[in-house]
Amino acid sequence: MGYMDDMRDEIKSSCQKRLKRIEGQVRGLSAMIEADRYCIDVVTQIAAARAALRRVEEEILRDHVAHCVEHAIRSGDKADQRQKIAELMDVVSRADR
């Protein structure tokens, strides 16, 4: 992987902060299950964790398009352009499943 494939520092920092919060949410979920909390409360917290993960995913994808894909387009390298588009299509199609 080259320089343009690396995530920008501010995005990395933002995602790390979000993931630390999500990590706490997941630990909380485990504690809720251990404490026999009401099922709907547990499911509500699972939905919140999933939404938080989706926000991290979207932030990373936005950064990827804004920098890696844009770089491939500007470079004029057709093979790199095709690869970046194929990667995006693959990840988007997996997200729909």
UniProtKB/TrEMBL annotation:
It holds the Pfam family Trns_repr_metal. InterPro entries: Metal_Tscrpt_repr (IPR003735), Metal_Tscrpt_repr_sf (IPR038390). Transmembrane segments: none annotated. It comes from the Bacteria. Belongs to the FrmR/RcnR family. PANTHER family: COPPER-SENSING TRANSCRIPTIONAL REPRESSOR RICR (PTHR33677:SF3), TRANSCRIPTIONAL REPRESSOR FRMR-RELATED (PTHR33677). This is Copper-sensing transcriptional repressor CsoR.
